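User: Quick sanity check before I run a bigger batch. Here is a single chain. Can you write out its predicted 3D structure?
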Amino acid sequence: MKTITLPENLTEIHSVFEQANDEDVIIQLADGRHFMLSAIDDFDIEIAQTRRNQKLMAFLYQRARQTQTIPLDKVKRQLGLS
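Assistant: Done. Predicted structure follows.
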């Protein structure tokens, strides 16, 4: 993910950003390409960065494929709980 800081004197583009605060905005270029502009928060950024962590995603994938479980009563016995 790349972050680009825009100068403040771009009034026209800032109005597009204001619209993106309320809903996603699709931007169409003259050559027909489309881009989506969405407002994000810190959590959205954290999710995107986490998804790019290949080691973590491989670990989560392996964990999701596991079918063996430990019954709750066995866990309680191991932890000394009633």
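The two ends are 49 Å apart (CA to CA).

User: Great, the batch can go ahead then.
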